[in-house]
Design goal:
single chain; about 200 residues; mainly beta; 6-stranded mixed beta sheet; about 10% helix; globular
Length: about 200
Amino acid sequence: MGGSIVGTGLAVSIGVAAAPVEMLSEVTAAEERGRERRDLSAATAVDGERSQVAPQARAVLEPGRVLAPKVPAGSGEGRRVVFSQSDQRVWLVRADGTAQRTYLVSGSVYDNLDPGSYRVFSRSEQAWGIDDSGTMRWFVRFAQGPNAAIGFHDIPLDDGKRVQTPAQLGTPLSHGCVRQRTTDALALWEFAPLGTSVVVVA
């Protein structure tokens, strides 16, 4: 991560079996409020979280299903992680170019990451922010910032409390890294071993 606290974003799982369209599951407002309460009361929980879809991503195809945003054009080829700074969104992309998963994140409020191609060079299941600014899990580092490494991780905890809510994902709020919902942080951790390509687009 880097700066004081660095982090990631909100989860949206996609199912792209053999269908030509990537799909996302949609949740009701009541389910989202219930999930938010669970997230705040049990920040370490990983299982049971449902996906949330941002209003701008809602393109209803059939009841309970929405169209997932496509992998950005010009974001490289092959198996990779793609982070769009303007969309505040991450894609986990398979070798054939289809998205395995996409979700909203919270990147940095500072202009500390240039668009381009990177590779995962370090990973930590547990990490601490600079100046005791918080703790984070499943930290996957891919770039060097002015003060510390930049990477993906879950929403940091400071004095036992999350520094932002999952509902705020999709907005730049970190001090350097890319914050993700717990389930998404774990998914990226499993998807991106050392050497994995990471492409940042503007």
